[in-house]
Write a structure and sequence with these properties.
Keywords: Membrane, Transmembrane, Transmembrane helix
Membrane topology: Multi-pass membrane protein
Number of strands: 2
Radius of gyration: 30 Å
Structural class: mainly alpha
Number of helices: 26
Largest sheet: 2 strands, antiparallel
Oligomer: single chain
InterPro entries: NADHpl_OxRdtase_5_subgr, ND/Mrp_TM, NU5C-like, Proton_antipo_N
Protein name: NADH-quinone oxidoreductase subunit L
Subcellular location: Endomembrane system; Membrane
Helix content: over 70%
């Protein structure tokens, strides 16, 4: 664990080398630099795991700290740059290095353009550096460095094709949306320091439990600010817009942004400060509300999209909400297992989609595709396995047990409406992926379709991920004892609920077969009713969210900017100067050289002064 600092130094140096000299280096060498970088991080992670296991004492929490230097010191505030490794940060270190290695390897097989290869590996190294900074530091102020680095890296990866105006706009939009909630995070950090006089995470958690009352006003404002700060990185509604803009990036970059890095930042913050969030039931309830809105929003939109990348993106956005459902049930260990399951499933879905789009020569409209089953049955089986995971298929998929426990926990707390929404999210996500499968693999092929042959090496990361979606890997032995609060799961009614969850999954299969496999005239009549058409139109327009955002924020801002561009204060100054000149010209005109006019002026002035003395 003495080499822990290299996990940040190595990708940072790799980023600087590629930025300075990457355009002069051959593509194969850029790939080698990128893959070797993440491989070195993986090796250090393995050594850290071995060291951690060998030094762990039963019923004790092992925490390794490495002080590097003091960043700055102002009065009593000292901000050291030190790295801390415990069970939680080690788990995230393993996730980042494991998924990073798979995605880097996939990118080497997938990307062909020299410019794309250079941009992807350079910016991804910066993203990995920023994420590891967030995960390994033990000071909230230092964490802001990595937090901002994640935002910058997201901006760069989304804007890889910056020469297209749409992509540049999307990158700027993502950057702005992320920084809107960063303001709340900074406010939360200031409140923590003002209240507890420390920003060291391990210390402030202890002081908060000792000095702050549960459900007090200050603990509510601290936790709600921290949650709002984590919302953008976690892509919860209404701060989800950057997440949907990632579809403009290359597919390996999409996998990094949606599955294994940026999303982990917001989730890590909530998990790391879980003892703090546990003290505010109101914040947990608000968390539940935003997660439910995200499920309804994302799952309904995914169901009507035709763009494959947008279908996948909204399906992943739906799955993120179940992490916050787990937080709201206060079952933090279950939420960590849900995070691992989400990372596996979403990465697998994106990589499989990348191969699908590439095989179809970049065509992403499912209405123009079909007949892929005969040309690529392997990819068809992969999508079926993904469908089993997303639909929480009984006994086979690990998500059946993980999501089942999360929804059962919601029901046990009396949140029947939220539990129903979570079941609806599973149903709609299943229908979305089944619609994609039927359209692309089963429907009649388009005569113009020409499929590209995909190298077998592209499937290696996918085959590895497929194993982890099965019921063989349900609950991972994560070393979080003494770090995350342990919540006992109410097992009463577990069997009936599992049967209900299985019934929802089977219902999705029946509905998908009726509506998408071989739709008859009655189905077409239902789909052509005015109400259904209106709902489909609303969902296709993303609930008019971008339209509302544009009219409430963008247009008033542009109007104000154009108004200020004309410098209204200068116009006001011109009017003042015009008035002064007019008064001055009138006064000057009184100097006419006539003695009687001066005498009259003196008499009038004397009368005015006398009146003021009498009446005031």
């Amino acid at each position: 664990m003495n080499l822990l600092y290299l996990t940040i130094i190595v990708p940072l140096l790799s980023f600087l080398i590629l930025v300075c000299f990457g355009r002069q280096i051959r593509s194969i060498n850029v790939m080698l630099i990128g893959i070797c970088t993440i491989f070195v991080i993986g090796l250090i992670t393995i050594f850290s795991c071995v060291d951690f296991i060998t030094n762990t004492v039963p019923d004790m929490t092992l925490v390794y700290t490495r002080n590097l230097w003091t960043w700055f010191s102002v009065g009593d505030l000292e901000v050291p740059f030190s790295l801390t490794l415990d069970g939680l940060s080690l788990t995230f270190l393993v996730l980042i290095s494991f998924f990073g290695l798979l995605i880097y390897f996939f990118a080497a097989c997938y990307l062909k353009s020299k410019e794309d290869i250079y941009n992807f590996y350079a910016y991804s190294n910066l993203l990995i550096t920023s994420m590891l900074t967030v995960v390994l530091v033990d000071n909230l102020f230092v964490m802001l460095l990595g937090w901002e680095g994640v935002s910058i890296s997201t901006y760069l990866l989304i804007g890889i094709y910056y020469k297209q105006a749409r992509n540049s706009y999307a990158a700027v939009k993502a950057f702005v949306m992320m920084h809107l909630t960063d303001i709340f995070l900074i406010i939360g950090i200031f409140l923590l320091y003002q209240t507890l006089e420390t920003l060291k995470i391990s210390t402030l958690l202890i002081k908060a439990q000792n000095d702050l009352a549960i459900d007090s006003d200050i603990i509510f404002w601290i936790t709600i600010m921290l949650f709002l700060g984590a919302m953008s990185k976690s892509a919860l509604f209404p701060m989800h817009t950057w997440f949907t803009e990632t579809t403009l990036a290359p597919m390996p970059a999409v996998a990094l942004l949606q599955s294994s890095t940026v999303i982990l930042a917001g989730v890590y913050l909530v998990l790391r400060l879980s003892n703090l969030f546990l003290m505010s039931s109101d914040t947990l309830y608000i968390m539940l509300l935003f997660a439910s809105l995200t499920v309804i929003f994302a799952s309904s939109i995914a169901l009507v999209q035709n763009d494959i990348k947008r279908i996948v993106t909204y399906i992943n956005l739906t799955q993120i909400s179940y992490l916050f459902y787990a937080f709201s049930t206060q079952n933090w260990s279950l939420s960590l297992n849900c995070l691992i399951n989400y990372s596996v499933t979403s990465t697998l879905l994106i990589l499989a989609t990348a191969i699908l789009v590439k095989q179809c020569r970049g065509e992403r409209d499912i209405s123009k595709l079909g007949g892929l089953l005969k040309s690529n049955p392997v990819l068809y089986i992969i999508f079926l396995i993904i469908m089993l995971s997303l639909s929480a298929f009984p006994l086979i998929s690990s998500s059946f047990y993980i999501k089942g426990d999360i929804i059962l926990g919601l029901m046990a707390q009396g949140n029947l409406l939220v539990g129903t929404i979570s079941l609806l999210g599973i149903l709609l996500s299943s229908l979305s992926i089944l619609r994609l499968i039927f359209s692309v693999f089963h429907h009649k092929p388009n005569k113009n379709n020409q499929f590209v042959k995909i190298k077998k090496l592209n499937y290696l990361p996918i085959f590895i991920l497929v194993i982890f979606t099965t019921a063989l890997f349900i609950y991972y032995p994560v070393p979080t004892q003494g770090i995350l609060p342990i919540a006992a799961l109410d097992t009463q009614g577990q069997l009936p609920f599992r049967l209900l969850l299985a019934a929802v999954t089977l219902l999705s299969l029946v509905i998908a077969y009726i509506f998408y496999a071989y739709p008859n005239s009655e189905v077409h009549e239902i789909l052509n009713t005015p109400m259904v058409k209106s709902l489909v139109k609303l969902c296709k327009s993303n609930w008019r969210f971008d339209f509302i955002l544009n009219n409430i924020f963008v247009k008033p801002y542009i109007y104000l900017a154009n108004w200020l561009k004309k410098d209204p204060f200068a116009i006001w100054d011109n009017w003042v100067m015009w008035g002064i000149k007019k008064i001055n010209s009138y006064i000057v005109s009184l100097e006419n050289g006539q003695i009687r006019w001066y005498l009259v002026s003196m008499v009038i002035g004397s009368i005015i002064i006398l009146m003021l003395l009498i009446f005031i």
